[in-house]
Amino acid sequence: MQRDQGVPQPRLLHIEADYSPAVSKTEPWVDLRSIRIDEYLQARSLAVKTQKAYRQDLQHFLRWTDKAWSAVTARQIAQFKTHLVRKEEGQRVLSDATVKRILGTMKAFYGWLWRCGYVDRDPTIEVQLPKLAEPEADNLSDEQVEKILAAVAGTKLCDRNLALFAVLQHGIRAEAATLLNVGDFDGQRLWVRQDKGGSKGVVPLDEEGVQKIQAYLGWRMSQGEVLLPESPLFVSASRRNRGARIGYDTIDKLVCQLRDITGIDFHAHQFRHTYATNLVLDGMNPYHVMTLTRHKSVQSFRRYTKAADQQAAEAAFYETKRRKRKTEPGSEQ
To answer: Is the model's pLDDT at 59 over the cut of 70?
Structure first.
């Protein structure tokens, strides 16, 4: 039988095998525990600085152990507490306040893990937080405030800085002051819409505070700026960030400058302490003061009423002694 001439003859091809090793693509190592922290922070309405603080607190535990969140036991939480209160070279590494904050963050985080079903038990329930002494209000004296404000008036951007310190003098936190917009000032009061722990509220301003803010806004308009409700209330005048919203670092740098000028070792938050304490000492109902300062905890506000309570107790003591003397035989009626 004759083969079809149109069909080519088959040929065997020699194929050399490639024995070179395959290049493996190694994925970067990811600590899955951090993903839960990210999810926890995203689920809560927290300010940027508060989120950073929570993350730093939880990082203490991540550095201490590599156990998964669900594998941690109550005994290990107790051991972690012992680690936090350790001493090195005879001195505590962390203060009781820091240890309490870290353990409090752990408790809140594990409560969230349990509610979300990520763990079947909360190992932090039995851990006891350190007891702290009741904090004192860190007030500035009238003389110190007067000296600081005189120094503010001599700064380069005195209109802005005087208005800024007027806001701080009304008990508004520095971070919250940087987040205020022009529309938050209605000519008599400030509407605090973003603050620590979501403590929103309205703060009435005294006449001097209103005048300083109006003077600053008037100066900005005289420079040709068009002020809109959403415009930042306080803006930078630096070459790089001119017209942009100031941040906390601007206030911090200004405070450092004023410390050097006045010789007073103070921080911006002391104006909030001074505001609350003075209102209570002047006889304002503490409940109303709490409304203005937007405190959510009576315990944390207690520091501001202690001075007024002491003053009232001393007055009652002397009044009691005076009445007793009047009732004694031979005393003048």
So the answer is: yes
